[in-house]
Design a protein that fits this description.
Rossmann fold; 36% helix
């Protein structure tokens, strides 16, 4: 179900029978859009969750290949805050790579939300060692970024770094959906300038990562969880694009974690698996 929320394009996945008071708000990462959440959103719907995947500004079926010139990280943060404010009940945010950093910045002020980060991009003030793979990609695309060009990552690079070790046929399908990004957002992914207030968040936090992520090593994700007072889970044999590989099992893990953290106050019904 397609709609607009606070001026952003969104794809809503209503369950056959809603079981929870809050909706899941899904925020995509770099070079992707609402399409990346279809598999997980379907699994969540089967468990009784309403899922709402939102696109960053200037993405929609009408603007699917339009380059979002001038879009900044702060623009995305403001947009997400407006979406959160429009929700009747504090949502549960589920955000991936750069979208995770946007969500963290948007929730620096307590909102009563719950936050789940997938392969999150680290902020500038987190003392981590940049992976060799990420550094090589930064060198390759640095000139385009410095020239403030908007672009899509080469399909070969996207498949090797974002989509591996997914099956080749699935990689081929997903890579055809990638969208151009403005240089300001790409720069934050490779060389972040955004800092966060370090210390325990006022909301429940879960950080998950794949053991074989070549861009954001699991140790980085684990440190984000530790520094922000959250929980961390690592999935063996998986890479950066966790939202496709073994999706149903990971979704069930997230589902159980939410129920454990929020308890009965999140429930509309009591027969929760």
């Amino acid at each position: 179900m397609q709609q607009s929320i606070a001026g952003l394009w969104a794809e809503r996945y209503p369950p056959a029978q809603a079981k929870f008071k809050s909706s899941l708000l899904l925020i995509h990462g770099l070079w992707s859009g609402v399409w990346c959440w279809q598999s997980w959103a379907t699994h969540f719907c089967n468990l009784g969750w309403e899922s709402v995947a939102i696109d960053l500004r200037r993405r929609s079926p009408q603007h699917s290949m339009e380059i979002p010139m001038g879009l900044t990280f702060d623009d995305c943060v403001r947009d997400l805050r407006e979406v959160i404010d429009s929700c009747s009940t504090p949502p549960i945010l589920l955000a991936m790579d750069l979208g995770a950093l946007i969500a963290l910045k948007a929730l620096e002020k307590p909102e009563g939300c719950t936050l789940i980060l997938v392969s999150p991009s680290p902020p500038a003030n987190l003392a981590t060692t940049q992976s060799r793979r990420l550094y090589r990609l930064w060198l390759k695309y640095r000139l385009l970024i410095l020239l403030k060009r908007s672009f899509r990552m080469d399909e070969k690079d996207f498949r090797a770094n974002f989509l591996a070790p997914l099956p080749e046929d699935l990689q081929a399908t997903l890579s055809q959906w990638t969208q151009p990004e403005p240089s300001a957002l790409i720069r934050e992914f490779f060389a972040p300038s955004v800092s966060l207030q370090m210390g325990p968040l006022a909301c429940p936090l879960l950080v998950i990562a794949g053991s074989d992520d070549p861009l954001n090593p699991p140790a980085t994700s684990q440190e984000i969880a530790q520094r922000l007072g959250g929980e961390f889970r690592e999935y063996r044999g998986q890479g950066h694009w966790l939202i496709e590989h073994d999706g149903e099992n990971i979704v069930r893990d997230i589902h159980r974690w939410i129920i454990r953290k929020l308890g009965e106050k999140i429930l509309l019904l009591t027969d929760i698996p």
